[in-house]
Amino acid sequence: MVTMKFPAMFAQEASGHRDEAVGALSTFARWAAYACAGAAVLCLVAAVLLVVSALNRFPAAVPEVLSWVSVGEGASFNGEVDHPVYGYLARDPYRDVTDDGSVSTESDDRYLLFDWDGSVPAAQEAADVLTTLMGAFLLFQGARFFRDIEREGTPFTAAAARRLKSAGLIAVFAVVLSNVVGWLISSLAQTFYLTPVGMWKMGVWEIGAETGWMLALGMLLIAVGIAFDYGVVLQRQDDELL
């Protein structure tokens, strides 16, 4: 009878350690879910502020501004640019022309369409808004992932694995969407305002350094989600043994 107490005592001790670990995991998951949800809300607020900032650059209603005439500001001599050349949409292209042929920078009836390097600020603004929104969706997915862990008491569930893979797909999609939209807006601006009718011109668009690590993050999350699928099988076998 004495020898039978050791397995029972060992089982009780192991069960106590397991319950303690599950409790710690649930506590961590709860706070992690709060952090992800809070960060997601901040991303949504940031996206709204970016939209407001972009719209405030328009001196009039957006459709009206887009119907204005494209004018340039800058100077060149023998094909060499002496001053940076900017492209504007102006309500009246002749209203603020100075003696040297440049456009006065004091008028409020102009919208900066092309920067000195040929890039389109509106394209970058649109890409930033989309990236921030997709970041909010990614963080909301993270909050749901940690909620699942808190509820189930283990990270190895089918729902958790699915949410990890979904988060990875969101990260990859955010990179593709923001770059495609930015390039498309830049190309449309070049085509409609600087290119003869019936022709198409590629816009100036640079893929930022963040594109690489966002793609890497997305692929990593997808890979971890696939690994979690195997963890789900092992967790189910462990539960059956207990």
Secondary structure: elements and pairs:
Blueprint: H1 5-56, H2 62-66, E1 69-77, E2 80-90, E3 110-114, H3 121-152, H4 158-194, H5 210-241
Antiparallel strand pairs: 1-2, 2-3
Helix pairs in contact: 1-3, 3-4, 4-5
Describe the protein's architecture and organization:
The structure is a single chain. With 242 residues, the chain is mainly alpha-helical. It folds into two domains: 25-58 and 120-241; 62-114, no CATH class. 65% of the residues lie in helices and 10% in strands. A three-stranded antiparallel β-sheet has the order 1-2-3, covered by helices on one side. The model has no long low-confidence stretch (mean pLDDT 82).
What characteristics describe this protein?
5 helices, 242 residues, 3 strands, mainly alpha, 2 domains, 10% strand, three-stranded antiparallel sheet
Give a short synopsis of this structure.
The chain is mainly alpha-helical and 242 residues long.
- According to DSSP, the number of beta strands is 3
Radius of gyration: 28 Å
Helix content: 55-70%
**What profile does the largest beta sheet have?**
3 strands, antiparallel
**How many separate domains?**
2
- Give the distance, in angstroms, between the N- and C-terminal Cα atoms: 23 Å
H-E order? HHEEEHHH
Q: Beta-strand level of the residues, as a percent range?
A: 5-15%
Separate helix tally = 5
The averaged pLDDT comes out at 82
Low-confidence stretches: none
Structural class, by secondary structure, is mainly alpha
Strand numbers in spatial order across the main sheet: 1-2-3
Keywords: Membrane, Transmembrane, Transmembrane helix
Transmembrane segments: 31-52, 169-193, 213-233
Protein name: DUF2975 domain-containing protein
